[in-house]
Amino acid sequence: MRHFDLCIIGSGSGNSIPDERFADLEIALVDKGTFGGTCLNVGCIPTKMFVYPADLAASVEPAERLGVELQLNKVRFAEIRDRIFGRIDPISAAGEQWRGANPNVTLYRAEAHFTGPKTLDTGTGETITADQFVLAAGSRVLIPDIPGLDSVTAHTSDTVMRLDELPGSMIIIGGGYIAAEFAHIFSAFGTRVTILNRSGALLRTEDADVSSRFTELISRRVDVQLDRTFERVERLPGDRVRVTSADRDGRSTSVEADVLLLATGRVPNGDTLNLAATGVEMDDEGYVVVDQHQRTTAEGIFALGDLSSNHQLKHVANHEMRVVQHNLLHPAAMIESDHRFVPHAVFSEPQVASVGLTEQEATAQGVRYVSVIQDYGSIAYGWAMEDTDHFAKLLADPDTGLLLGAHLIGPQASSLIQPLIQAMSFGLPAREMARGQYWIHPALAELVENALLALPLGDDQ
Ligand SMILES: Cc1cc2nc3c(=O)[nH]c(=O)nc-3n(C[C@H](O)[C@H](O)[C@H](O)COP(=O)(O)OP(=O)(O)OC[C@H]3O[C@@H](n4cnc5c(N)ncnc54)[C@H](O)[C@@H]3O)c2cc1C
Ligand SMILES: NC(=O)c1ccc[n+]([C@@H]2O[C@H](COP(=O)([O-])OP(=O)(O)OC[C@H]3O[C@@H](n4cnc5c(N)ncnc54)[C@H](O)[C@@H]3O)[C@@H](O)[C@H]2O)c1
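Structure tokens predicted for Mycothione reductase (461 residues):
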């Protein structure tokens, strides 16, 4: 049985671990799927490459309001798709080729599982052992249990970006990140989109003000049906689908469409690895349990990313990868992951970005706070945009003036939030942040400056 110094399962963030500092270690890298993992192949990167042209296509109506008449003539969907994957697929292939050529790295391209302590069946017919393991096997799409689902073609984020042609109509089941982003992409391109959501608001884990505003705004472009209980899915001629669901009062209605997209969450892949054989514990939700050093409950086995983190975000997986990398190299001086202020953004229309406590979380935790809502329309750049829909909401500690949370909905929210993340990460109080630096006038960032100044903090803050 071949023995390695290090075995990494998962070529997403896990693939970034071996650099020149690992050159004298014999490393096995195991992955069953497309090399490079979710973000590169079916996640962050292709979705955002679709979002950008969708933003352009969606600019007709806002331009009209400003006196600029645009016309959307045609979206060349197949061309967009082929441009995106024509760029991504070669990156994945080149990454695999380069990694496979590393003299100290052996690639195993199959589904692996543990058969004993630090003993892995690589799925290729070869079983290996290693001194240390890194579990970076990510998460997979959750398929909901709805009668009839197996009788239709049900797309997920893994497949919907490779459709042959732009569908005339689409039903999206779910109301989280993926539903929000694909509803924007396809509706901007001209598809009639219906979102069927189990709960009473879209993006319901956001601050309630953001969630309700997002639901209101996207409902102008997309048919949004909330509080649905799913009864059945049926296949119609031409591979179309019909979804029947009931509202809160039990009244059933059906929607028909060309394409069905399931966007009902992702589950960690720990259950596929037979982790009990090597003494690695998972929690009740199936995430691998790790400590602050990313160590699992088994000595010499680390875990990172979606497999062990319910944030399910690439920047978190990458951060944890760097922690694992350091801790493998410096076992006597391990560092800790920093999950204090994990931000996220939803690249829909409107964009949403958030970091820290929502108002409902602050209330539930008994945290004292002051808050402010600052409209885009209140600053000069917002006048230029004639904005009436979007805002930034801040929460701060009334005693220290430190920010507790920031929640933005509107243009460039994913970039505008960055200085607020920085302030929280480095402990910069709101007033000091607002007045201790110049803010370029009349840039959109004045939204952040004005929100900071509008926080009802005492004069000493
Ligand atoms: C549509 C979509 C859009 C997203 N957009 C964003 C975004 O904009 N920003 C953001 O921060 N995050 C985004 N995410 C989330 C982000 O993609 C993930 O958080 C991130 O990719 C997780 O990285 P990872 O290394 O943990 O796992 P992955 O990248 O999923 O890598 C895991 C690898 O393990 C392999 N594997 C699994 N089981 C086994 C096994 N038993 N044996 C061998 N190999 C195995 C898989 O084939 C896979 O290649 C998005 C996700 C999706 C689905
Ligand atoms: N911009 C980004 O950072 C980005 C973009 C896309 C995805 N992601 C990551 O991918 C993960 C998965 O995204 P997602 O949108 O699938 O998940 P999500 O957790 O954001 O939303 C899941 C939605 O499905 C609904 N749902 C769950 N189970 C259901 C069921 N059985 N029947 C009906 N509805 C059900 C939930 O109520 C929720 O509305 C996210 O958690 C996120 O971390 C991130």
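The mean pLDDT is 98.
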